[in-house]
Amino acid sequence: MARNQLFWQSKLVLLLVVPYVAAGVVLQTHWWAYADAPVALWTLGISAVLGLVAFKLRSATLAAAATGAVITASLMFSTATLPYLPWRTALIPVLVLMVLTALSTSAGRQRKQQLGTAEDRSGRTAAQVASNLGFAALASSEAAQSLLSTSGWLPDAAQAPMLPLTVGLAALAEAAADTVSSELGQLLSAQPRLLTTLRPVAPGTDGAISLGGTTAGICAAALIAATGAATLHGGLIMFAVSWSGAIFGLFFDSLLGATLERPGWLNNDAVNFLSTVAASAFALVLLALLAYTRNA
Hints:
- The chain is mainly α.
- Helix content is 72%, strand content 1%.
């Protein structure tokens, strides 16, 4: 199946993410403005500035920058507490992710151009941004917090609000791990191997893994998980669970690439989105197991 025939999957990801997240941002803006707190002003202002910076640096198209700004605002609103400080929200892990992906994408650009794997100079598209960051916003949204916090999976009521935030952080860490492993793996390892067969394949092959790229991805996931856990005061459990989920999602991404993307059943946006879902699902299962062992 031709890759351009799978563009509907990118549109589907956008439809799943953008309307819901944008509506949540509008509602949160109205609520915080009514509460007479500076949260809405800071959140919208910082998100808009980050979007403009990404666009000016040509790391994202205009539509992608707008999509990223909306997702950033959603994540900041979802993690806002009083007394309000912007750096005690999801802003910090998002900033770290932006820096990591920008540096890894620009590293060794000449070699990537020779391999034919360099990113388009116009930057990432809206669908790419939504597929990488969208589920983190969905999992951390107000609705997800209400659903998961009342699920009874965590015996300690004080820890319940951390459940959706940990799940969302796992998706965010997986997005960083995937990008960094793909971009740096082409530079750190000359001969990647297909995950399913371990046979040598060309750099940039869907489903290919390498020692250097995987190590870089795992380190990137650890950095996002650590900054998120520290910023959101989630402690060691949030870090360990979100990091574990990200690592699972990283390998799940390669598995989908080798089995469904390579034959032409899924495009890259669909694979990236499903991988963040898998990272969050794995984190959710780990949290459920932890709750079960505590109750046993």
